[in-house]
Structure to design on (284 residues):
């Protein structure tokens, strides 16, 4: 699916800098609360889910894709002069990911629709995190953040044909995806069903520590993913969510917002983001 008025292929390829809103919001550790939501949204796309199913070790090691993806994507945002090269490297990692989805439709990870959908979930996640656990962004900041996301996406060196030109067009694109393109794929069903044998993300967590933490990572992650999905999509997919669930989520959000006011800066950002911010402050 393409935007009605796609962005020109002639896009800047210079990296985002410390004055961007993306530097402020993308490395925010509150994003971890929505990482399962981002993963679920991505895997509700049949082509992306097919690629994960056929080209990853998802069922044996469901954390592997996530743990591999976070550092290089952070480096595209915060990597400075290294960012364009890292963006092209990420693109090239996906060259061989292709095949057919469950309905026999062909997919390729580098198709404009597929690659952009993955990027769109990361962009939209910044707005969702602030709306749920921070300070909601006004229209001007949403537009500015979206324009920065176009610059960020251009660093991957892919055609810009799927990229909406402004935030209003992006909202229309997003709504179309939620209403007509996403579906309960095999990967999404597997995730939502839960996994009593879920392995820990790191070897050092094995044993009694993981016995304690597994419910938080498994049931807690799925609960957050379902509860923070756009409500119309959740209802269309028939995913259960009760008023009691909503009250609990609202309570969690209040706790997170209060906690964030007193946390030092280093505990509010992913380490690469914090390091980049500190480095730029030294140069000021």
């Amino acid at each position: 699916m393409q935007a009605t008025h796609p962005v020109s292929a002639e896009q800047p390829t210079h990296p985002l800098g410390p004055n961007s809103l993306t530097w402020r919001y993308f490395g925010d550790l509150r994003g971890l609360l929505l990482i399962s939501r981002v993963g679920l949204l991505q895997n509700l796309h049949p082509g992306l889910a097919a690629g994960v199913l056929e080209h990853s070790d998802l069922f044996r090691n469901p954390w592997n894709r996530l743990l591999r993806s976070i550092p290089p994507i952070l480096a595209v945002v915060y990597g400075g002069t290294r960012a364009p090269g890292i963006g092209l490297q990420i693109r090239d990692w996906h060259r061989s990911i292709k095949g057919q989805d469950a309905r026999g439709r062909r997919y390729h990870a580098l198709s404009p629709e597929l690659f952009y959908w993955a990027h769109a979930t990361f962009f939209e996640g910044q707005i969702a995190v602030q709306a749920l656990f921070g300070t909601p962004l006004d229209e001007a900041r949403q537009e500015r953040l979206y324009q920065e996301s176009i610059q960020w996406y251009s660093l991957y060196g892919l055609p810009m044909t799927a990229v909406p030109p402004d935030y209003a067009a992006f909202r229309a694109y997003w709504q179309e995806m939620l209403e007509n393109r996403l579906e309960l794929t095999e990967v999404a069903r597997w995730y939502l069903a839960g996994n009593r044998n879920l392995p820990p993300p790191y070897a050092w967590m094995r044993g009694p520590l993981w016995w304690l933490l597994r419910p938080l990572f498994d049931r807690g992650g799925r609960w957050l993913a379902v509860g923070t999905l756009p409500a119309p999509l959740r209802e269309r997919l028939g995913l259960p969510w009760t008023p009691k669930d909503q009250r609990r989520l609202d309570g969690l959000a209040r706790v997170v917002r209060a906690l964030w006011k007193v946390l030092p800066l280093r505990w509010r950002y992913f380490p690469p983001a914090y390091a980049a911010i500190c480095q730029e402050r030294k140069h000021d």
About this structure: Strands lie at 98-100, 106-108. DSSP finds 13 helices and two strands in the chain. The CA atoms of residues 129 and 238 lie 23 Å apart. The longest helix spans residues 112-133.
